[in-house]
């Protein structure tokens, strides 16, 4: 059974940076893409970014497009989210998951990692 472990969150001032990691334990041979989602207080979990596991091409939600970079290291079975120029509205719990071509999450969620951006 695949497990996802997110890490790298923390408290940062607006304008700062964080790098999140998503360690995948289990087979990834059927993975199409890996994505980051976030749950902001009072809102539903939302899509942030996706990287195609084999080809590396990426997709972002508009609000992070020029500030965040998603990547993956196939050899380490790890996905990353580099977050720059963070804003208070980026505050939330960040989760990773495998996704299909419709960005539908496929696995059980991990515990997530908290990102808090102070003004």
Describe, in plain words, how this protein is organized in 3D.
The protein is an all-beta fold. It has no helices and 10 strands. The chain has strands spanning 3-7, 10-13, 18-25, 33-39, 46-52, 58-60, 68-73, 78-83, 92-99, 113-118. The N and C termini lie far apart (40 Å). The model has no long low-confidence stretch (mean pLDDT 96).
Defining key terms:
globular, 0% helix
Briefly, what is this?
Helices cover 0% and strands 50% of the residues. It has 119 residues and is mainly β.
Secondary-structure map with pairings?
Layout: E1 3-7, E2 10-13, E3 18-25, E4 33-39, E5 46-52, E6 58-60, E7 68-73, E8 78-83, E9 92-99, E10 113-118
Parallel strand pairs: 2-10
Antiparallel strand pairs: 1-3, 3-8, 4-5, 4-9, 5-6, 7-8, 9-10
